[in-house]
Amino acid sequence: MSSLKEIKTRIASVRDTQKITQAMYLIASAKMRKAKEGLDRTRPYFTAVQAEIKRIFRTDERVENRYFYPLEGTIPPDGAIGVLVVTADKGLAGAYNQNVIKAAQELAAQNRGEKELFVVGEYGRQYYLRHGVPIRRSFLYTAQNPTVNRAREIANALLDVYDAGKLKKIFIVYTDMKNGLTSEVRVTRLLPFHRAQFASDHTERHVAFGFEPSIGKVLDHIIPSYLTGFIYSALVDSFCCEQNARMEAMDAASRNAQKILDELSLQLNHVRQGAITQEITEISSGAQAQRRNAGEEHV
What we know:
299 residues, Helix Hairpins, Pyruvate Kinase, Chain: A, domain 1
């Protein structure tokens, strides 16, 4: 059995660890709240952009554009695909990163053509480097601070290779926060868009609009903004899911630490009681021995 000093030392160590996990829980909560506020401030703009694209299709349902599937609904021919993988910068977030990597691997296995990887997050970069998987472009800024400017940089990089014809399709693998409690990994096609995504609602009042210099040119200018908004939303969702996963992991760690503290406290009491009992037994035995010695001397 451990000594009294060893148990006290371990209790102090577990308490220090518990303070760290509780602090990390609070930090993750604050970061998630801040990211959500940033998304809420910019969401109206990107919602308006989506509404304008819908308005274009209400005006001309047969408009052709390279960012959309052809009018006949045919699927573009097989070719190289791009995959934007959004991971965290570090672990301590449960299975958050592993789930994203697994989904990206499944997507790659389903497509026979060449794959080009675009990675956000140090965890994903290090994973692919360790496994010898080539990365087309790694966005080296941290995943801990998603901003519109960074989302725009990613969108422009993806559009450059898509417009050059090097990629036929582009997907994004990220973690979506379904509600305040659960999250799931999503695999979404960024390009080309399907027309159904911007299908007009026939109950809406239709007002004729003119587009200059042409509808196609307007779409060419508005699509990058819409893509930026989608990527920014995905970055924020992923970041919030990461912080939520880290909060759950730290909360579980704090509970486990408390369980260990309870067990150690019980063990400490047993050791202390055993030591007291042993001392009492030794004192009692010594007293009895003295009484016997005194009786023998008296005789």
